[in-house]
């Protein structure tokens, strides 16, 4: 339990020795995989940013392209339902 200063009392801390050797190794492997995937994710994000930069320099509207990509990820039925609700809300506000 935390003492008044918010730190934990030493007797209740979890010692690294409480994990078996195999559990420690498995933890290391999992952390390493996560770190590798995070690096790959950063690389892919940079690549995507570069492609949007190319599109912008060609004259495409990247804001709209991002919307198109997001819409294409959705199921057609889900997208149609959202569009109907959007139209309903805009009509109720006198926007369309």
Radius of gyration: 25 Å
Number of strands: 0
- In terms of quaternary structure, the protein is single chain
Report the average pLDDT across residues.
89
Overview of this structure, please?
It is a single chain. With 96 residues, the protein is an all-alpha fold. It is 70% helix and 0% strand. The termini are far apart. The relative contact order is 0.04.
Quick tags:
mainly alpha; 0% strand; 2 domains; 96 residues
TL;DR?
The chain is an all-alpha fold and 96 residues long.
Task: Walk me through the topology.
Layout: H1 21-58, H2 62-73, H3 76-92
């Amino acid at each position: 339990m935390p003492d008044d200063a918010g730190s934990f009392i030493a007797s209740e801390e979890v010692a690294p020795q409480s994990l078996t050797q195999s559990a420690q190794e498995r933890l290391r492997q999992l952390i390493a995989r996560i770190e590798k995937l995070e690096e790959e994710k950063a690389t892919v994000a940079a690549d995507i940013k570069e492609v949007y930069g190319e599109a912008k320099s060609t004259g495409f509207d990247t804001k709209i392209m991002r919307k198109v990509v997001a819409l294409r990820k959705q199921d057609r039925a889900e997208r149609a339902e959202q569009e109907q609700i959007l139209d309903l809300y805009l009509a109720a506000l006198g926007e369309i």
